[in-house]
Amino acid sequence: MKRNSRLSAVLHALMHMAEREEPMTSDDLALCLDTNAVVVRRTMAGLRDAGIVQSGRGHGGGWHFAKPLTEISLLDIYNALGEPILFQIGPATEMPGCVIEQSVNRVIGDALKDAEAILMARFAGTTLADLAVDFRASARHGRTDTG
């Protein structure tokens, strides 16, 4: 089953932007992500609508941050992407009247709610500035592939 890597890809693009002094075009970001510029524009438009990035046209134009990295949480990015589904598992629906299925669904549902709450709290408490610090520390320790 294919995983949804959209959040990871967007964070990857945003870290490339954080490393540049000047705005990055959709074509620049597409090269970083090995994708099409149209996909980048579509995704970045959602981030622009959420007030995370801005875009400029013409010479010197491109995507840049609308506010400091310390004010942008991973939860902000997740929400701007439309809150992708976090987990592929979920309740069964084949026998809704069965008390065993109901019990299983309740236990699984409670566990998933707890896991989602933990993940959302972690996203809320992690900013793009935190991610940039981690990236820069990794780069200093010899991991320099910034694909």
From TrEMBL:
InterPro entries: Tscrpt_reg_Rrf2, WH-like_DNA-bd_sf, WH_DNA-bd_sf. It holds the Pfam family Rrf2. One of its GO terms (molecular function) is DNA-binding transcription factor activity. GO terms for cellular component: cytosol. This is Transcriptional regulator. It comes from Shinella zoogloeoides (Crabtreella saccharophila). The lineage of its organism: Bacteria, Pseudomonadati, Pseudomonadota, Alphaproteobacteria, Hyphomicrobiales.
